[in-house]
């Protein structure tokens, strides 16, 4: 019995090893690269027809329509009319923190307790996740790895999606603290879903006050010159009060967002609304208070019964018109691969195509505090580049053929493609 069990485990282990994809992180860029004869979408609204772009040592050197001819030691890539885009950025993801939702041992995005700002999601990021490769294949090159669970589950970090370990992946570490505000509405399947009950209102007030008290105590603690004991949770929000971090408040209803605005005023911190389903109703208030919005799940149903059925599609354009800084997010992990197409949907409901592109590139970079080094194809920024045969935001024509992260040409292979090739071979379709 023991021998049979050992044999089975050994065979299973060998099978698992053999089944792994031979996909490795790319080595650092060595030779300068010159892309030419392409339609270049800068990410800031500008489009260059028949343009060229060169990058070396991981940085963009030049971009334009009349660049000088490259020297002999440059790798020239004639794109023959293909489209060049900044790498898409996915905010509010658990990619790398979860692999199979139904298998608890593969989930590492939450910690026990309600207030844990000292928890760092970055150190739990799994660079070997098979999901990561499916994101790169659709042009998503950066992601904000975000903790969940409790009210204040920890800090999020931006990672680049081609790395051996979390240290290599770190792009901007611990850039935000997250506060999951309790919803005033009951869960979707609850009777009376669209009414705020007394119990929900009391729970909302109680839990929100708990976070407010924590921040008040943390602020007082950080103003002291000396401490009798170090409080790790208070220390974890030091950068928040120094405006070196942002507080992402996850909420959707108008009343919830107004409380978030009060947090920004009361504590003098930078607040970002995460979710913001009803943000279109108070766009002027958000603009006045300089509060950005990460619109989550654009492909979803309206929040309230009397909202327009296409309201989630129109919200982005309404925020754009009001001058509110916003970006798009799909939340979750595997769903992130559809993020460019959700931007495409927004472009048919009021945004221009380049404004929709900015909603998943430059705007996201601004909100995440990385716009000085990425988010658009401008000189001096990292060469995070996606190349597609068609419109990156249109699933009917988008075929990503090449991608570069910090100048490194990354693999676009993934488990889906490998299974596709496997069964083409099985049925004689190759």
From TrEMBL:
InterPro entries: Amidohydro-rel, Metal-dep_hydrolase_composite, Metal_Hydrolase, Metallo-dep_Hydrolase. GO terms for molecular function: hydrolase activity, acting on carbon-nitrogen (but not peptide) bonds. It comes from the Bacteria. Residues 1-19 form the signal peptide. It holds the Pfam family Amidohydro_1. Keywords: Signal. This is Amidohydrolase. Residues 346-409 form the Amidohydrolase-related domain.
